[in-house]
Amino acid sequence: MATPGQTGSSEPQAEVMSIASPINLIILSLFVVLVYWHLRPKQPVVLPRGPAPVVFRTYTPKTLREFNGEDGRPVYLAVRGRVFDVTPGRNFYGPGGPYENFAGRDASRGLAHQSFDEDMLTKDLSGPLDDLKDLDNDQLENLQSWEERFSEKYLVVGKLVAEGDPEAPTS
After folding, report:
1. Where are the transmembrane segments (predicted)?
2. Fewer CB in 10 Å around end: N or C, the chain?
């Protein structure tokens, strides 16, 4: 029989585990770092500035002319009385583009004829709008195709009316 203080048994004594063991300290450190990383102060989210709002308005051929893309202004053109903001296509419709003749104008007749020449545009900006009554079926189909393309791609920002129309803006 063993006396107190003597270890006569052949079984090893169980060691007491310390909470401050190296592995526990490493795990605790990782936990603290992860919690801090998750809860740390973050930079406020800044959304990009969107384009200025566009108000639907009524244009006459004269008031539409100023939207020709010069001096950084937007580029608008009209097709069958609907005014489209084609500014995203400035390379095509703005100054220096292949369709720049249409910028700030009613492009209906030129699009119907598949012609981008200056003579397709209405010269008298004070006169009535082009009624397009002399167009044949193929030309009307061309015009319809262009109008659908513009409707899918660009924002309608207004309508075009003749000078003197009751809806025409007053100067």
Report:
1. 19-39
2. N
Contact criterion met (CB below 8 Å) for 77 and 103: yes
Q: What is the topology classification, in CATH, of domain 57-160?
A: Flavocytochrome B2; Chain A, domain 1 (3.10.120)
Q: Which amino acid is at 109?
A: R
Q: How far apart are CA 58 and CA 76, in angstroms?
A: 12
Token pair in block for residue 151: 């409707």
Q: How high is the pLDDT of residue 19? A: 74
Per the DSSP assignment, residues forming a β-bridge with 83 are 78, 158
C-beta of residue 75 within 8 angstroms of C-beta of residue 68: yes
Strand ranges in the chain using DSSP code E only, listed in sequence order: 57-59, 76-79, 82-85, 155-160
Tens digit of each residue's pLDDT (9 = 90 or more) over 104-133:
999 999 999 998 888 888 888 888 899 999
Phi, psi of 155 (to 5 degrees): -85, 135
